[in-house]
Write a structure and sequence with these properties.
The chain has about 160 residues and is mainly alpha-helical. Helix content is about 65%, strand content about 10%. It has a two-stranded antiparallel sheet. Helix 1 runs antiparallel to helix 5, helix 3 packs antiparallel against helix 4 and helix 4 packs antiparallel against helix 5. Keywords: Membrane, Transmembrane, Transmembrane helix. This is Tryptophan-associated transmembrane protein (Trp_oprn_chp).
């Protein structure tokens, strides 16, 4: 996931810059025409925001855990379908479209990886928690030590009779 998302962002950014088709435009005031390249960002404006989203998802995946990380993975995976669809249906130039499809597939793969294995990945350390969360964690730890001091097993859900 940590490799797939930055590579996906780079591919989507590159696809936005590459030409996806060429158009013939008339020069104002003359009968002459010129051929101009149309970059992917003009045909599919979502490419650059999706690249930024792929980078932001890295931080989100590190900060979240559990269900929230899986929901982030689902969103990233679903949004990865946008450049895949656009690359397959919009434009005529192969390189830009292929790069968009590759970036979308990588984004989709990262999303699936987050959904399937995200609950096992490490989360940001405790020192990055809010002061309230740190106090709650310390209180729980004190309760565990107090239970041990009283001769109870704090790992049991209910104390034995």
């Amino acid at each position: 996931m940590a490799v797939l998302l930055p590579v996906s962002a780079a591919a989507l950014w590159g696809a936005a810059r590459l030409p996806w088709e060429h158009t013939v435009r008339a020069r104002p005031g003359t009968d002459a025409t010129t051929t101009a390249a149309v970059p992917g960002e003009e045909l599919v404006p979502a490419l650059v925001p999706l690249a930024v989203l792929a980078l932001a998802a890295i931080a989100g995946a590190l900060a979240l855990s559990g269900l929230w990380r899986r929901l982030l993975g689902a969103a990233v995976g679903l949004l990865g379908l946008v450049p895949v669809w656009s690359g397959l249906t919009v434009g005529a130039e192969f390189a830009g479209r292929a790069l968009a499809v590759a970036g979308g597939v990588l984004m989709l793969a990262a999303g699936v990886l987050l959904v399937v294995t995200g609950h096992r990945a490490p989360r940001l350390g405790g020192r990055y928690r809010s002061p309230g969360a740190a106090k709650e964690s310390a209180r729980v730890e004190e309760d565990l030590w107090a239970a041990l001091s009283e001769g109870q097993d704090p790992t049991l859900r209910r104390p034995p009779n």
